[in-house]
What does this fold into?
Amino acid sequence: MKLKKILFSSTFITIVWIVLLCSIWELEALHIEQIKRTPEKVFPHLMQIFESIADPKIISNDQTSIELVLTNAYATLERAGIGFLIGALSGFILALLMKFSGIIEKIAFPYLMLIQMIPILGMAPIVFAITQDIGVSRIVISGVLTFYPVAANTLAGLKSVSAENENLFRSYSANVFQTYTKLYIPTSIPFLFTGLKISAPLAITASILVDTLQGGVGLGCLLSQSLKGGMSPFVFWQIIFLSAAIGILSLQVMVIAEKIIMSHKVRWNREKNKNLI
Amino acid sequence: MLKKITAMIVAMGLVMSVSACGNTQVQTPTTPASDAAPAVATPTDTKSILEKYAGAGTIGNWGLGNEYELYALLAKYNLPLDFLSQDFTMDGFDDNSIGLASAMTYNELGLVKNSYDGGYNYGDTVAYIDMNDEGVAMLEDNLFTTKTFAEANPETVKAFVYASMKGWKYASENPAEAAEIVYNNGSSVSKEHQLYMAEEVAKLVDLSVPVGTMNDTAMQQTLDIAKQYVKLDDSAAATKLAALTLDDIRSQAYWTDIANAATFTPEKTDVSVQLKWLPQAQFMGYFVAKDKGFYDEVGLNVTIVSGGGDISETTAVSNGTVDFGVTWVSNLITSNAAGMELLEVAQVYQKSGLVLVYKK
Amino acid sequence: MSNEITIKNVNMVYGEGGGHRELRNPARGTVALKDVNLDIKKGEFISLLGPSGCGKTTLLRIIANLQNQTSGNVEVAGGTPEQARKSRKYGIVFQSPVLQDWRTIRQNVELPLEISHYPKSKRHELSEAMLRLVGLEKFKDVYPNELSGGMQQRVGIARALIMQPEILLMDEPFSALDEFTRDKLQEDLLNIWSRSLCTVVFVTHNIAESVYLSDRVCVMSPRPGRLSAVIDIDLPRPRKLAMRDTVEFVEYVSKVRNSFEGI
Amino acid sequence: MKKTKISFSGVLLPLAFGALVLIIWQTELLHKIIGTNTFTLPLPTTIIRIIGENLDSISANAFDTIEVALIGLVLGSIIGYLISILAAIFPKWGSGGLKVIALLSAIPIIALAPVITNLTKDFSTIAPERSMFAKIVLVTLLSAVSMSVGVYRGLTDLKPFSEDLLQTYAATKFDIFIKLRLPNSVSYIFTALRVSIPTAIISTLIAEYFAEYITGVGRQIRENIITSQYSTAWAYITVACAIGIIAYMFLVLAERLYKKKKHKI
It folds into this structure.
């Protein structure tokens, strides 16, 4: 009975899936090993990647490969964090404005959709021309890329306020400020978190993406360097694993933040718009 | 259950399972050749080699403004101007999807030949076609700024050129030390490759002429090839390109032969230079000038900015984010055709570093 | 006794006033209320009874100034409905409790006080008293999702009464509750009303409920929504649940039911 | 009446706003506001002129991009849908599997693209074919992830009691699937497509950066930006946006038709 419980626990299932995924990886790596001259550049074994992490060999500037990757990851994380905060905040504010004024909503909503369609990387030089600073450009672009989920979800949250609740506040002749702080914003918090959970990993990948706009320090910069050869091919694979790990971690941070902020209070609401992931 | 797992595998390992099918030819690692065929193709070979790979459709180049010399070479032998995109690694060359690959003598060629980190260890089993031998060479790494900046800060520009060329001379005479300096300044490549690169770059700088010399004949050839092979979709830019003269792209006024001692009174003392690529020995002269205090001597405080991304050095210089840049002359030409006002102030490499490498 | 609420010739047509097309073709609008006249006395408990679509909720919302009538005149607590709303003359209870999940029970009850900027000590004092009145003083620090539907609705009533309003407006407050809870709440409501002495306008579609609670039952009928009968309920107060088994009660119920016939 | 009112404020207002932006852009007021020049941010008329001058090459590139995005989107959506059905049949293992699949989206596309290009080299000896295949694989992968995760909710989040109702009819698991789960998942398909259409297009553009064979709107944007041909780059950016908008409009239209049909039934 106890064994059965363990066998069907979600942790166990996840582990089985990960093991399965790793076996597929290894099979493919074995296959590549047979047919390629330099297999570690195309598809290395997982073991090789882990070994490279432990490798004490100095590869650049007094750093081992993993030290180098981590230094760059820190820079990316910092920019992603700032971009995420700016993107989330402006998304939230825009959602409030759109809720506040139907005209603003009507004007902004189609363009909000449009933002997703713009190949923002192509517009990077414009952003760069305006900000005159590559660091700021990177932050702005990752902010723009993370802005949409927050704005769209928060707006959905603001609109989820029931007519009865609105009537209640009207019956108290509550002013606009009170209606927003005591009704609209608290109601939208679970939705805001849904948006934040989507955009946190997005901010990380966006930040890595915009790193590649120019050299310098950052996971994306290092990624393009490692792609361009001249250093251990495992740096590239370390970056892939680390960036996936950071993305997942950022999601977990949002989940924890949500739990802390909403604790047991909003169970009903949270369940109403829970996500699978 | 089994079915489900299979389906999952199919979906998740889509890439892998699909790449596995249709894979019948197993490549045997190339055996190190003991034949003594020369590393550089002779002109008679060139034609047959180009025809062979053009026929197979496996000539590679990076594109993105690096393809004009290749176009000129293909046109010279009446071959179609087609190439595959190389992704800045030599993996395509390694797995034979690219038979005749573009390579810089100081970078990719070294990776192909050598066995250090990132290398492919082909040793002497590869040979190459040299653009300089074929008469289709274009000038590459130079030093440039904007016309406005140069006119407003002539002494700064002169001082920067002077100190930089001093750095280049020192670096080219002492490549091992230069490699070490670059490596300590946040290099993007391994130590061994850095040394290889420094030695190869020194050959391109050509110490038989004063460092930074702008040779009008070589530059005119570059401009002529660009006019012929650069295709611009914007008709306004295309018209402008056709009308460009040497005076639109370079000025001799800011270059001084470093054999003569000189002093400067820079108008602006804090300046920055953006590289065309990631920090590596390709730009060793600037790192050396900074490290050896040559910039301090002329009263400049220089920041070296890494390149190597989609925001090109021409854009950064043009919009004033940095004061100087390092680019290829062809890139400067297309930028000016598009409306920038860039001005070359020194020519660091006197030869083209581009070769086409193939397996013997 | 003076009038608390006066309704004169009130008409409500939906879809009118927004565009020009209706003005040209008034038949296209939906008539929700037609020529409604009603005087509600101070301290009276009155029910608006009728099937769906008879306009009972619309009438309540007009009194509450949650929407405006198309024509006619409404006076609430000696002024316009808007003045009554702005000076917080009424409390309102909806079909669902409309509690805020992120506030404790006490904080929910204090919400109207917060909006009217009452000091904290005063808020606590009033909310304690109100929670005692509805029998929830033990639950003041829990969150709404931990309460049953009936308890949640009590919180809603406490919240409506905390400003000590002259008028209590209730829009089918018990319709979502089970029979046992409803019985209990009806009895409690009568108790609370008898102590607070406010005027109650109670919207329902339950005949027995309206008879049991009200001084007068206003029977409304649909298409177009109108007031078709007003029936005085002369049953003695205080009323207990057992009263519903008496002959008089049953007679009133059938009288009200019969008033729907022929509609 | 109401309908005309909605379309008036919902369409004309944003259009008016767009026109206003175009006007301040064309009159170079925008350049003054954000401090740039007509070289980095070319005038709308210049962009239109370039599109007009290069209709042939632009439409050829756009066609290649659309082809990859569309095939990838369709394949990925079908595969994703099948995965979610499998996951819904075995919910215990399926939801765990989907969690692992969703991790894929945490890997940046820019890292995924070169790996896939390398892994698919042996697909064909003809470079344009294998290059296109590599791009399609990438788009398929990403579309499959968002579709499987999205539709799984549609297959499992049933209306309360609806499953009980069918069970009272002694319906089999298969019946419940066909009569309840599948129809319930349709609206979730649209929601998933809302996410995966922009993703498919953007990832096609980025995959083109790393593709062996030089073609496509994304590659042209990059080529022109790196060689400082901003006007031409802007022409391609405009085309990329247009592709996205048109695809999105098709989706909205399809969704409306579906809802209309559903209402009629």
